[in-house]
């Protein structure tokens, strides 16, 4: 069994696609979008939520409570004493102050240009509530500071069976990103495999190629070549995405991150080999590009429904029975097992079982797909039925080569 023709076909497919404008432009567009997203994140991170508030009259007593309440609302607050109401309102109109607080400290008058910022409004409410509470307690002989100390020492003591994972969120994000990228590659490059098969049938190029190689070698070469193209784009876009996430402080590199990335890549290769073979076999059933969608639709709808259902199950309960079973089924293992591995909810036994089942299923799909491909790829004219394609040899008909 010679693999040299397979490697030559894979190299041809890889080179022709990578040098094509669609691949280059598509990758550059996504990289530009990621760059723009990183710039927006950087701008938002540097643009802290800040406010300047003027206080005047009895409301000066709110200075301390305002400063203590602001951090809880994510607000960086500067309190500025104003000599009188007129000067403070003039500062608000000029844009030097976001608000002027005056009058009674428990029920002040807040002057703003249009309406207060939500965080600022919550801060003022919290401050006035604290002042009113302290006044009420003091009037009944209760020390507010002593009450606060007693409340601070109270509360439940939570004991967890498992220590919380501070990186669970980023692990889930990586797993879901891997599932989405695989789904995207299946839809894009799987369809490209099928279209390439149809193009060669329509142009009769496949007849020349098959005079030198066997059908299974041509099929495997296409899957490997286009799989390498998809993997290259996955690495480029995934690397750029990780760089953006790292710059934004969303991801922190560690051993778990590296193992998650390796898992995503391994399952990507398995998943692409499986689905690309299915798409190639489906594409070999027709001879015209306009008929391609009719044979690809059942596969794409099947993958889409599984992805939507599994995505929701995974985000709802990654330990649930439904997502566990789905992640063990070979058609969906490459999509969801990496995410469960990243979350640490997939036991080693389940991972090994899913891997073995996927390998066995992929081998079966390759054998079956190779048979369909061999029986259909030289048939032109009317669409080849699945029964004929699965037969030992498809009968000749008028209009065939």
* Distance between the first and last residues' Cα: 28 Å
Helix count from the secondary structure assignment: 15
Topology order in helix (H) and strand (E) letters = HHEHEHEEHHHHHHHHHHH
Structural class: mainly alpha
Question: What's the main sheet like?
Answer: 4 strands, mixed
Strand content: under 5%
Helical content, roughly? Answer: 55-70%
Instruction: Extract low-pLDDT stretches.
Output: 393-401
Shape: elongated
- Based on CA atoms alone, the radius of gyration comes out at 32 Å
Membrane topology: Multi-pass membrane protein
Domain ABC-2 type transporter transmembrane: 21-369
InterPro entries: ABC2_TM
Transmembrane segments: 172-194, 223-253, 265-286, 295-314, 320-339, 351-374
Protein model, in words:
This protein has 401 residues and is mainly alpha-helical. The chain has two domains: 4-38 and 167-390, no CATH class; 49-146, D-Maltodextrin-Binding Protein, domain 2 (3-Layer(aba) Sandwich), CATH 3.40.190.10. 68% of the residues lie in helices and 5% in strands. Strands 2-1-3-4 form a four-stranded mixed β-sheet, sandwiched between helices. Helix 3 (63-69) links the parallel strand 1 and strand 2 (76-81). Helix 10 packs antiparallel against helix 13. The chain starts with a helix and ends in an 11-residue tail after the last helix. Mean pLDDT is 79; it is low at 393-401.
Could you name the key traits of this structure?
401 residues; mainly alpha; D-Maltodextrin-Binding Protein, domain 2; 2 domains; disordered C terminus
Which helices and strands appear, and what pairs or packs with what?
Layout: H1 4-18, H2 21-46, E1 50-55, H3 63-69, E2 76-81, H4 85-94, E3 99-102, E4 109-111, H5 118-139, H6 144-153, H7 168-203, H8 205-209, H9 215-247, H10 255-283, H11 292-316, H12 321-328, H13 333-343, H14 348-376, H15 386-390
Parallel strand pairs: 1-2, 1-3
Antiparallel strand pairs: 3-4
Helix pairs in contact: 1-9, 2-9, 3-5, 7-9, 7-10, 7-11, 7-13, 9-10, 9-14, 10-11, 10-13, 10-14, 11-13, 12-13, 13-14
Membrane topology: Multi-pass membrane protein
Keywords: Membrane, Transmembrane, Transmembrane helix
Subcellular location: Membrane
